[in-house]
Amino acid sequence: MTTWEPTTRTEGRSLGTDLRRLLAVSDPRKTLYRDAHYFAVTVEVDPKRMRQWLPPGVRLAEPARADVFTAFFPDCNFGSVYHEAGVFVHVKAGRRTGIHCPWMILDDDVALILGREMLGYPKKLGEIDWHIDGDTIHGQATRRGSKLLSMGGSLGDPIDNPPPFLGRPHRNVIGLLGATIPRLIAFRPGERPVEVRPVHDIEFTVGGSERDPLDQMGFGQVVHARLHRVDLTAGRPPIPIRPLSPLFTATRLRPRVL
């Protein structure tokens, strides 16, 4: 995790100080992340195996696909420099294709709390090795000694008019623990592309463990792989769509909690 700390201390707390701090972290008029790097592999998905990991009422898009990614965040408003790995399943969002996140790990506690509490990403602490060496890119994710993802390849030339990666309609779940009833939420982050490049000669393997059963999600053939470098803004804030069963969390402790 990052060791960055603010250069000045705050004496006690006040409403004004708290609001200024909140605005500094999440000002909707400014970027929240700058030059975020997402190394994403889009794969075919076996619908029968994937459906069990989705919230009730959330349906797979057609064709059934998912984005499996590792990421590096060098600059954000709350001062952390960290890495992440996750899965975005392509789902129906009205007449559009959106994404749902059933699994994510990262190596920073602040980003974990913000993403889990505010946006419903089921984040857990893990280890991610992520680097670019010239035109070669590699990402690897492990947790509690289990190797979960390994992905690598060679970067191609930049793509004109690339599709968004994070800036798509989301369908996530918040209120995972305690007496609060879980709720399905909808939001869409803002995304400004910096550079998007294809990744060729892709090497991609998925592992799994009892706590993190990625190998049971039905990932199939690789469709394509890309490195998305993007700036991110707040976009459309989370809106509750409908409540879910109080048993939602209890029946999905893995891969969302354990």
CATH class: Mainly Beta
C-alpha Rg, in Å? 18 Å
**End-to-end CA span:** 20 Å
How many strands? 11
| Element-level helix/strand string | HEHEEEHEEEEEEEH
Structural class computed from helices and strand pairing: mainly beta
Oligomer: single chain
User: Based on the structure given, which CATH architecture is correct?
Assistant: Beta Barrel
Low-confidence stretches: none
Account of the protein in words:
There is one protein chain. By secondary structure, this protein is mostly beta strands. The protein has a single domain (34-256), classed as Acetoacetate decarboxylase-like, CATH 2.40.400. Helices cover 12% and strands 50% of the residues. The protein has 4 helices and 11 strands; from the N terminus they run H-E-H-E-E-E-H-E-E-E-E-E-E-E-H. It has helices at residues 15-26, 47-50, 109-119, 253-256, and strands spanning 31-45, 65-73, 82-93, 96-106, 123-125, 127-133, 136-143, 146-155, 170-174, 183-206, 219-243. Strands 1, 2, 3, 4, 5, 6, 7, 8, 9, 10 and 11 form an 11-stranded mixed β-sheet that branches. Strand 7 and strand 8 form a beta hairpin. It is globular, with a radius of gyration of 18 Å. It starts with 14 loop residues before the first helix and ends with a helix. The mean pLDDT is 92.
Write a concise keyword list for the protein shown above:
258 residues, mainly beta, Acetoacetate decarboxylase-like, 4 helices, 12% helix, 50% strand
